[in-house]
Design goal:
The complex is a heterodimer of chains A (386) and B (69). Helices cover 39% and strands 22% of the residues of chain A. Chain A contains eleven helices and 13 strands. In chain A, β8 (208-213), α7 and β9 form a beta-alpha-beta unit. Chain B has a two-stranded antiparallel ribbon with strand order 1-2. Chain B has helices spanning 3-18, 24-47; strands at 51-58, 61-66. With 69 residues, chain B is α+β, with helices and mostly antiparallel strands. Chain B is built from two helices and two strands; from the N terminus they run ααββ. In chain B, 58% of the residues lie in helices and 20% in strands. Classes of the chains: A alpha/beta (386), B alpha+beta (69). The A-B interface holds A 144-148, 151, 156, 165, 168-169, 173-181, 199, 202-203, 207, 275, 278-279, 281-282, 285-286, 288-289, 291-293, 295-297, 299-300, 325, 329, 332, 336 and B 2-4, 7, 10-11, 13-14, 16-18, 20, 22, 24, 27-28, 30-32, 34-35, 38, 41-42, 44-45, 47-57, 62, 64, 67, 69. β7 (176-181) of chain A pairs parallel with β1 of chain B.
Chain lengths: 386, 69
């Protein structure tokens, strides 16, 4: 129900709203009109509720506003800040109906000093890695064309593994994923990632390593900017792909890895070939294999034919054996679908008795014969002698 | 033998066969191997089901267990 100025003009007995109706209407207005935004201010009067929620005010020199931060969000924010701490908060305007109070609902809180320190640390690590050549394009290794065993360093509890598995299953199921579980955020994440990356080097037969996680708040991606993690990634012996968060997030591991994927799904796409493409490649190789041997055997058969004419009958046995082998292989050649020579536009002339006509003598003027083509036969006749 | 090995070897065989300087006997052997590699690669491509496993370290030893793909 919208609050309208006309309310005052109509009869109070019929039309008066209850306080709860009014507050509910105000709450809808407040929530609908102001988008979530970042505010900067000082925390005052923070009272942690036994259930884990925080209530406090945010103020600057001239104004203040009531804030509530629910337990789901306070858990990630760490310890409650002391009075007077300057913070950034991600806030959504809200209205507390029971008390008729305007307040902000806070989903994230970062001490401004911490943000500054994190930024300085990021710059320090970036410079150190740059100095040691870890971002050098010349260091980048090519990803294998057909990865069969892929190490995946991520959290078993996260969404990244599911995304990677889904893509790999669709594109390249003849593959093995070796998952190394590691915390990817919060306390212990750096140590866990370093240990997992070191473990990759102890696995045998791994073609490629993907390290990453799904999207999250910027501070949740912090472990992927840690110097130790970057150096451990650089020390991985197989080509590496880094896939951290969403497309817009860039972490230092992205710069160190041989390939940066915008998301875990994209990492999987880059990591494996498409099964259909490889199948086409195999068909092509089959055709070339058949063609390659075809050329060789034709040459050899001609030579054998000439030899047979000249040599003694004793040699003919050997020739016959070779011919049998050639014929057997020719049958195998025929079984390879690309060798169906008729499909390529050749035709075979066949005489009335069903034998193949191969020499000029097989075509006396005026003689009827049949042409066998890809999809059947065509009756034909040799031109009469002029 | 992985499909990558099969494909690499097939490429090599085809290149050798396409060059004319291979003896017939060697060519036949190459062809026979090529057919076998082709079959192996096609089998792997056709029948494969993605295997997802977890690597765990226990007291310094590595252990691999299946995960639900």
């Amino acid at each position: 129900m919208a609050v309208s100025p006309q309310l005052s003009l109509i009869s109070p007995t019929d039309e008066a709203m209850s306080v709860s109706q009014f507050n509910a209407a105000v709450k809808r207005m407040v929530q609908g009109q102001i988008p979530a935004l970042w505010l900067r201010g000082e925390v005052v009067g923070l009272k942690p509720h036994p259930k884990g929620h925080w209530y406090f005010s945010l103020r600057d020199g001239e104004a203040q506003v009531r804030c509530a931060m629910w337990r789901t969000y306070t858990q990630r924010a760490g310890k409650p800040p002391k009075d007077g701490t300057e913070v950034f908060v991600l806030a959504r305007a809200d209205f507390y109906e029971a008390k008729g109070e305007f307040q902000l609902s806070i989903t994230r809180m970062l001490p401004t000093a911490g943000v500054g320190a994190a930024q300085r640390e990021l710059e320090r690590v970036r410079e150190a890695l740059q100095r040691d050549g870890l971002f050098d394009p010349a260091r980048k290794r090519r990803l294998p064309e057909l990865a069969c065993t892929i190490a995946v360093v991520t959290s078993l509890a996260g969404a990244a593994l599911h995304d990677i598995t889904t893509v790999v299953k669709k594109r390249w199921p003849c593959c093995r994923l070796l998952v190394i579980d590691a915390r990817v955020q919060g306390e212990g994440a750096v140590e866990a990632l370093v240990a997992a990356l070191r473990l990759v080097n102890r696995l045998t037969g791994v073609d490629l390593c993907i390290v990453g996680r799904g999207g999250g708040a910027r501070e949740d991606l912090a472990a992927f900017n840690a110097e130790a993690v970057c150096r451990a990634l650089a020390a991985v012996r197989v080509p590496t792909i880094s896939a951290v968060g969403h497309e817009t997030d860039i972490s230092l591991t992205d710069l160190v890895a041989d390939y940066r994927a915008p998301t875990p799904s994209a990492a999987a796409e880059a990591a494996v070939a498409d099964r259909l493409e490889v199948r086409r490649q195999l068909d092509d190789l089959a055709a070339r294999l058949a063609g390659g041997l075809g050329g060789r055997t034709r040459l050899a058969a001609e030579r054998l034919g000439r030899t047979a004419d000249r040599l003694h009958a004793a040699v003919e046995d050997t020739v016959r054996r070779e011919r049998t082998r050639l014929e057997r292989l020719a049958a195998q050649l025929d079984a390879l679908s690309p060798l169906r020579i008729l499909d390529r536009g050749y035709a075979v002339p066949v005489g009335p008795e069903g034998h193949v006509l191969k020499r000029r003598d097989d075509f006396p003027p005026g003689a009827p014969f049949t042409l066998r083509v890809a999809d059947g036969t065509v009756p034909a006749r040799v031109e009469p002698a002029p | 033998m992985t499909i990558a090995d099969d494909l690499a070897r097939l490429e090599e065989i085809v290149r050798k066969l396409e060059a004319d300087d291979v003896e017939l006997d060697a060519a036949l052997k190459l062809f026979e191997e090529g057919v076998a590699r082709l079959r192996s690669a096609r089998d792997q491509l056709g029948s494969a089901e993605l295997k997802v496993q977890q690597v765990l370290e226990q007291a310094g030893d590595l252990r691999v267990t299946d995960l639900d793909g």
